[in-house]
């Protein structure tokens, strides 16, 4: 195939850019996922692996003079001794806590007997409990599940408050012209961008008076402040796009105002309502500064993940927490992404 | 409409806005006023600038101010250049451009706490960044760099790069939406009159895109002023002070110190003031175009 040099050149540059983008996005995420599945032993290995492992190639050696057993793990082309013990439960505990391998005492005893009866090192394959970090983080560690539920509750309340108050304002802004409508929509924009930190600090005092300190509902009160405004903006632009004639037609046929809203307007505005709920969810789910200020014993998941990073030296457990934090965020962001295009492309806000 | 007017003032739809107005009065205006009052009074409630004077006499606070400015400007400039280049490139529509768009958007979905951990697992001595550089042969495995020992300007630059990794897509998508609305014929007209690519970009694309660009940049700067979590997750408190990091430090670490609360209040007023100034610039600019403005 003959190509003009110019074309070849631009093609090379093109592929180079493509490779750079792909690797700067995908490589960190791959390494990060792998660390969230790594055992403590693996987390200390250097260089780190890109892909997670499912098992270890290992050897078990019997030391006759001391009546002890040595576990060797494959590292490169050689085997590295990682644990020497005489005790079955000690061995089993090491496998569980450092290697994420679950072996019952009976299974360990069986391996020991086998190793004793062979004169060279016994080759074995240790199967990793793949989701061990996740189980430890969420089920065995106290409070993580509560934190997850707190995050969900806070997000739920935020959606509810923003939809009711913001949706109504959006509808009114779209359908009626009133004296202060410009002032009102401008102040909504200002609220939307106002930093939550500046609200959370003084609000703590009121929240304590209302006996709501350290609850998800109190968090939702703060999260809802910018989100009501956002919901109003998004829904009003959609309501503006739904023609008044359609509503009037329904009323001509005898539907009440409420019935028209329920059967004509809401179904048409449904995508906008979903999009603004997802925005509200993400705002609550991703926040950490408000939760830091307004909670004490009932943190949200994002705050808990942040705290575990501070307290642990190896990042594999918090990484597992962060992956769980990431999943809903990832899904919802990509659902909204389509609305972003729609909102900015066709319906200029 | 006529029917409504006859029904009188009390049936006016504006009454439906009352709950929102009450909500904002209670949970926005009231706390905002009280935080401003707190920041301008001393312990006994007398008006004074003592809080501001005390704050700016602290070295860490001055560093925080400087770092926040550096971080905001640095990340805004870097992200604008990269995002605009990326948006221009992705706007060309090539094979798999949608797939590439999808991949570039992924980091946007990362919650700040996840971004903090992702980069922390990379930056420590035996982390994945060093592993990757070693596997490419760019680093000697016996002597890895400890990225987390970076301080001052280097630490801020590192944080700018991390921040860019996660927010670049959200800047890019706004610019891309602007470019997609952009009428290709303007650009073609430029070419007809003999302008080269750079000239059309400078004289045609930039001026038309200006409101979109300003929207994207102001939104970015408002978020950048409030940076704290990635800095604290990667370096810990006090290493790279930022304005909101100082608030978190006062609330989280020295909770019961004598001036912790007053300091936190005062810094949050400063942050809010910076944000409000940016918003007003934004409103003026978007007002020029007779458009409500785009919000993200």
From TrEMBL, chain B:
UniProt superkingdom: Bacteria
Residue ranges of every copy of the ABC transmembrane type-1 domain listed in the record: 65-280
Matching InterPro entries: MetI-like, MetI-like_sf
Main location: membrane
Subcellular location: Cell membrane
Pfam family for this entry, one: BPD_transp_1
Keywords (A to Z) from UniProt: Cell membrane, Membrane, Transmembrane, Transmembrane helix, Transport
Coiled coil: none
GO cellular component: plasma membrane
UniProt KW Phosphoprotein keyword: no
Protein's UniProt keywords contain Cell membrane: yes
Gene3D superfamilies: MetI-like
GO BP, sorted A to Z: transmembrane transport
Transmembrane domains' residue ranges: 12-29, 65-90, 96-119, 154-177, 218-244, 264-283
Membrane topology value: Multi-pass membrane protein
Annotated family: Belongs to the binding-protein-dependent transport system permease family.
PANTHER family: BLR7065 PROTEIN, SPERMIDINE_PUTRESCINE TRANSPORT SYSTEM PERMEASE PROTEIN
Protein name, as recorded: ABC transmembrane type-1 domain-containing protein
């Amino acid at each position: 195939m003959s190509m003009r040099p110019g074309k070849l050149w631009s093609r090379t540059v093109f592929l180079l850019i493509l490779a750079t983008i792909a690797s700067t996005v995908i490589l960190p995420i791959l390494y990060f996922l792998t660390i969230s599945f790594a055992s403590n032993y693996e987390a200390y290995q250097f260089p780190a692996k890109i892909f997670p492992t499912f098992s270890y190639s290992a050897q078990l050696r019997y030391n006759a003079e001391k009546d002890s057993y040595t576990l060797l793990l494959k590292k490169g082309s050689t085997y590295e001794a990682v644990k020497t013990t005489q005790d079955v439960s000690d061995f089993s505990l090491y496998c569980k806590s450092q290697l994420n391998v679950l072996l019952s005492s009976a299974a360990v005893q069986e391996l020991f007997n086998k190793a004793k009866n062979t004169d060279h090192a016994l080759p074995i394959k240790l199967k990793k409990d793949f989701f061990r970090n996740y189980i430890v983080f969420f089920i065995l560690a106290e409070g993580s599940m509560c934190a997850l539920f707190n995050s969900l509750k806070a997000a739920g309340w935020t959606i509810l408050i923003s939809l009711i108050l913001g949706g109504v304002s959006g509808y009114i802004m779209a359908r009626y012209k009133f004296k202060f409508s410009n002032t009102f929509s401008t102040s909504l924009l200002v609220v939307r961008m106002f930093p939550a930190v500046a609200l959370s600090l003084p609000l703590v005092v009121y929240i304590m008076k209302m006996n709501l300190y350290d609850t998800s509902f109190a968090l939702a009160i703060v999260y809802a402040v910018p989100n009501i405004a956002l919901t109003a903006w998004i829904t009003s632009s959609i309501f503006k796009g739904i023609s008044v004639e359609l509503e009037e037609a329904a009323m001509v046929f005898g539907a009440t105002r409420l019935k028209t809203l329920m059967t004509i307007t809401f179904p048409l505005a449904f995508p906008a309502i979903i999009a603004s709920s997802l925005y509200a969810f993400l705002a609550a789910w991703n926040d950490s500064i408000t939760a830091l200020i307004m909670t004490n014993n009932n943190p949200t998941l994002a705050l808990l993940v942040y705290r575990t990073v501070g307290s642990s030296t190896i990042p594999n457990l918090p990484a597992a927490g962060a992956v769980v934090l990431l999943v809903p965020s990832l899904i919802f962001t990509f659902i909204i992404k389509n609305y972003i295009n729609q909102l900015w492309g066709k319906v200029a806000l | 409409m006529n029917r409504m007017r006859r029904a009188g003032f009390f049936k006016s739809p504006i009454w439906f806005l009352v709950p929102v107005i009450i909500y904002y009065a209670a949970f926005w205006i009231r706390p905002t006023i009280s935080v401003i009052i707190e920041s301008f009074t001393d312990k006994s409630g007398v008006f004074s600038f003592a809080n501001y004077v005390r704050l700016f006499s602290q070295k860490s606070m001055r560093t925080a101010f400087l770092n926040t400015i550096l971080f905001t400007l640095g990340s805004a400039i870097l992200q604008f250049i990269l995002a605009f280049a990326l948006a221009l490139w992705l706007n060309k529509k090539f094979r798999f451009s949608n797939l590439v768009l999808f991949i570039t958007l992924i980091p946007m979905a990362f919650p700040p706490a996840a971004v903090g951990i992702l980069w922390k697992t990379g930056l420590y001595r035996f982390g994945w960044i060093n592993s990757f550089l070693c596997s490419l042969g760019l680093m000697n495995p016996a002597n890895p760099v400890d990225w987390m020992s970076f301080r001052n300007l280097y630490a801020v630059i590192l944080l700018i790069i991390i921040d860019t990794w996660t927010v670049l897509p959200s800047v890019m998508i706004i610019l891309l939406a602007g470019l997609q609305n952009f009428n290709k014929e303007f650009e073609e007209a430029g070419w007809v009159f003999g302008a080269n690519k750079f000239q059309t970009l400078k004289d045609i694309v930039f001026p038309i895109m200006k409101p979109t660009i300003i929207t994207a940049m102001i939104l970015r700067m408002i978020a950048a002023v409030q940076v704290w979590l990635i800095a604290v997750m990667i370096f810990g408190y006090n290493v790279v002070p930022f304005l909101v990091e100082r608030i978190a430090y006062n609330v989280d670490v020295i909770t019961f110190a004598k001036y912790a609360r007053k300091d936190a209040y005062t810094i949050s007023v400063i942050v809010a003031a910076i944000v409000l100034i940016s918003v007003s610039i934004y409103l003026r600019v978007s007002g020029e175009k007779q458009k409500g403005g785009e919000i993200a």
